[in-house]
Design goal:
33% strand, alpha+beta, 20-stranded mixed sheet
Amino acid sequence: MCGGSTPLSLLAAASHCKARAASSDRTPRRRQAGAIQKHSARLYAGYNQAMQVSFAKYEGLGNAFLLVDRMGNDKNSPPLSPEHVQRLCDHHRGVGADGVILVSPPKNTQTIATMELFNADGGLAEISGNGLRCLALWLQHRRRIAAGKSCLIATDAGPRQVSFTPDGIRVEMGRAHVDWTRPLSVILSDTDPCHPFAVAQNKPGEHSPSCHPDERSEEGSPQPAAMWGDSSPVLHYCSGQTQNDRGGGSHRAQDDKEITAVTLGNPHVIIHTPKTGSEDLTAHIGQACQKSPLFPEGVNVSMCTLVDRTTIKLTTYERGVGLTPACGSGACAAVAALIHRNELPVDQEITVRQPGGALIVRQDTARRLWLTGPARRICEGTAFLNYEL
């Protein structure tokens, strides 16, 4: 070795080492690429075996629905089971929504489509005001509703008219039936009539069990008392002040809350309160109502506050869904209940403020309810059901 030169033998050895290193480095890469290829093949095979559901996601004031087309090429697709609906509506394992709307061909020449509505728990629902507006917009996007025209959509609550106005999408919600006779409950407890928010199943004129200032919970909070009013079920919360003593008849609290049962194709309970009900309280009462034997099919529960003769506030717990930012049928039921109580005028637009935004409700002189509000398309895609990696 002289002049800094490197022997040929050393150069050959270095070259051989580099070649071996490159060869050993390519082997795990090839294995990794092969594993990815096999995984991809299994993935696509799973996709082919899975049930594929094409959907469009729409929302009305935060109340989201997945619309599934069964009018065209997909009309002969396999039916969706309650488990499929639950998976689609799951916000973590599915697409995420408050319900699924199957859009089927019309059943007669008067309607342009048939709406079949499923709540997030997979149960059927008769109608949804927000869902109906979303369906109307979906139909317009597919050019099944001409601009400026109104049409009828078949629902489980009957045919409903929809149209587009400068203020939003207007849908007919039908006539509300206000039931002042059947017993209602926020929470029923046969063994504990002073259960929080309990409403006794007394007949009109009978006295119900009442809690007194000395009948308090372990935490010291006053327990509620319940009785029937002369014309409607009334929920009373004991505030420690009653009209009569223990030996007297009824014990009314100062902060009474009346409950009205309204049927609008689907069942509603409206709780009238002077202050806006919190979402936590609405959820608590709503969950309890789903367990009541008075509502074997569940019930939508709304806490309603009258602001003035043109405005109300509403929070709603929907059966099969839970708390929702807005409820179209609940807004209509609340307006119908307040008109029945002569607290709102007939044939005048009423603004219903909800956490998700405001809706406009009007009950005309024929007692038909009209709901106006926005709807928006979010996305469209394909979901794969019955598929696990």
